[in-house]
Amino acid sequence: MKLIFTGILAALLATTAAKAEEMVFTSWGGTTQEAQTKSWAEPFTAASGIKVLQDGPTDYGKLKAMVDAGAVNWDVVDVEMDFAIKAAKDGLLEPIDFKAVPKADLDPRFTTDHAVGSFYYSFVLAWNKGAVSGEPAGWADMFDTKKFPGKRTFYKWSAPGVIEIALLADGVPADKLYPLDLDRAFKKLDTIKSDIVWWSGGAESQQLIASGEAAFGQLWNGRVFALEKDGADVGVSWAQNLTAADVLVVPKGAKNKDAAMKFLAAASSPVGQAKFAEASGYAPVNTKAKAEMAADVVKSLPDAHVDGQINLDMNYWAENRDAIATRWYAWQAK
Amino acid sequence: MSVETRQSFGIVRMPAGFGGLLPALILIALFFVIPVLALLLRSVTEPAPGLQNYATLLYDGTYARVFFNTFLVAAVVTAVTVLVAFPVAWMLAIMPSALASIVFGVIILSMWTNLLTRTYAWMVLLQRTGVINRTLIALGIVDQPLPLINNLTGVTIGMVYIMLPFMILPLVGTLRAIDPMTLRAAALCGASPFQAFRRILLPLSLPGIAAGGLMVFVMSLGYFVTPALLGGTSNMMLAEMIAQMIQSLLNWGLGSAAAFILLVVTIALYALQLRLVGPRRMSGGN
């Protein structure tokens, strides 16, 4: 039965197989994928003649289904780094061919045997200046409903970030975060649960803060950068900003593996990374990229705020992803 | 569909009709029955053979709560939809037909607008800084924004709006088939308007309410977008949970089991309804 199902799926997927000198890039849609198309895919096609077809949004279930069915029609996929580490362990990814992808200048924090960094970002504390009196100084203020009343917004899904923020606010030192004390984190989160509005995507987080629907929240720095560019009256605190990354992976059995590796080389190159950073406000994973960028962009990146910066532990999350998620959603549903 | 066409379907003989059914049956077998069987198989084989996925779903407090939420939301939405739809359907049934077809058009038109667009529109209206709350505050009716979103209220408003046509359409069919003379007769016998409604109109329109109600209830059970956007995390419904298990946790065994339970419950409800109301009255006639 499984065989029949797999066969049908394979037949369906095979009908859309890409032709030679074409490859499919899949990402999350929206402004991020637009920036990736402009900064990576278009120059890459111009230089190599390889056509890059865009697909999306990234869906881990689909990725697994394709690999299981042996009919993979995504060649390069933008995924969260903790997923990439887990997926590599589960045999869902091709190893990166570092003969084709120069590794020397890539930030080792965001490079693995099966993934090359796409971009990295920080979770920062942002607020609507019209809705908050005073300036929140750090994560602890997000839990102080007396000093800072109003709704606060956090990332809805189980992912690196919110648990760490709760622990930091509760006084856990940055170097003692892992292994995460989930009981303590949820207890801390309980104290503000009724004041939390969850955001499930970047656009929603911007809308919540810009409208004052939430007075302040935990946002991706790129989204705050875009708000500031649009002239929204927002404040931002980089104190204990938390870095995480998206990475580019090649699903196991991808049909255009060679083209995919060439694409990865272009995307992670200094110029590719610099262009993407300028367009998105996210940080480059290539250490040489800064030299290619405008000075005011460099200033706005997480790279300019390494003081007190905390790297979310992707290996820990990859290991404990499912266990944390189970507790996370149970707590949310309560 | 008129009563005549339905009756003409009724006299078609089985063998003659069966050949024509074949393509549909093959399609359903290929794209519904086989995948459902694959789903069932997955739910008892992943990650290991056995019924542990079902045990987890039934005995773990979180999943039990999500099941409860799902049925609660579906029930509330169905009840409110009936209350809102009935007067509209009644009005449509007694209106001159030219006017009724315009109102019908407006109702159907709303179904053609993208679901996501409509849901986001509700977000704009319902949020704390939204149109409704701003207006209420400006008029001095409330001084704090009402919590209309990220809770059961938001889910109910958004879903009732989407479900209304599915309730109104079968209900109009039923109401139109009721002989208006019955109400006049009730009035002549001294019944107050309320009595006439409760003892004549309501019982006669029950098949339509049941048919529409079942459709709304079953559709609500599997709803995804609206609860995710207008509800809070404590209103999580089964469909959203299944999507998480499949898409992000890659726990396909548990997701399949949850999907299969939802399917079985839906079929059971349909079977119950069929027994209570009968297949012909289910389609909206009397």
Reconstruct the topology from this structure.
The complex is a heterodimer of chains A (334) and B (286).
Chain A: H1 2-14, E1 22-26, H2 30-48, E2 51-55, H3 60-69, E3 76-80, H4 81-89, E4 116-128, H5 139-142, E5 152-155, H6 162-169, H7 182-190, E6 196-199, H8 202-211, E7 216-220, H9 221-229, E8 234-249, H10 257-267, H11 270-280, H12 295-300, E9 310-311, H13 314-333
Parallel strand pairs in A: 1-2, 1-3, 5-6, 5-7, 8-9
Antiparallel strand pairs in A: 3-8, 4-7, 4-8
Chain B: H1 3-10, H2 14-45, H3 52-59, H4 61-94, H5 97-112, H6 115-126, H7 131-138, H8 152-177, H9 180-188, H10 193-221, H11 225-230, H12 238-248, H13 252-277, H14 279-282
Helix pairs in contact in B: 2-13, 3-4, 3-13, 4-5, 4-8, 4-10, 6-8, 8-10, 9-10, 10-13, 12-13
Please give a quick description of this structure:
The complex is a heterodimer of chains A (334) and B (286). Chain A has helices spanning 2-14, 30-48, 60-69, 81-89, 139-142, 162-169, 182-190, 202-211, 221-229, 257-267, 270-280, 295-300, 314-333, and strands at residues 22-26, 51-55, 76-80, 116-128, 152-155, 196-199, 216-220, 234-249, 310-311.
Shape of chain B: globular
User: Which stretches of chain A are low in confidence, meaning pLDDT under 50 for 5 or more residues running?
Assistant: none
Mean pLDDT of chain A: 91
Q: Report the order of strands and helices of chain B.
A: HHHHHHHHHHHHHH
- Which class best fits the helix and strand makeup of chain A? alpha/beta
The number of helical elements of chain A comes to 13
How is the CATH topology of chain B named? MetI-like fold
Q: How much helix is in the residues of chain A?
A: 40-55%
- According to CATH, the homologous superfamily of chain B is MetI-like
The CATH architecture designation of the largest domain in chain A is 3-Layer(aba) Sandwich
Tell me the greatest interface: A-B, 29 and 31 residues
Strand content of chain A: 15-25%
- The averaged pLDDT of chain B comes out at 86
- Architecture per CATH nomenclature, i.e. the level-2 architecture of chain B: Orthogonal Bundle
Using the coordinates above, name the CATH class of chain B.
Answer: Mainly Alpha
The top level CATH class name of the largest domain in chain A:
Alpha Beta
- Measure the end-to-end span of chain A: 38 Å
The level of helicity of chain B is over 70%
* Main sheet: strands, sense, barrel of chain A: 9 strands, mixed
- The amount of beta strand of chain B, in percent, is under 5%
Q: What is the SS-derived class of chain B?
A: mainly alpha
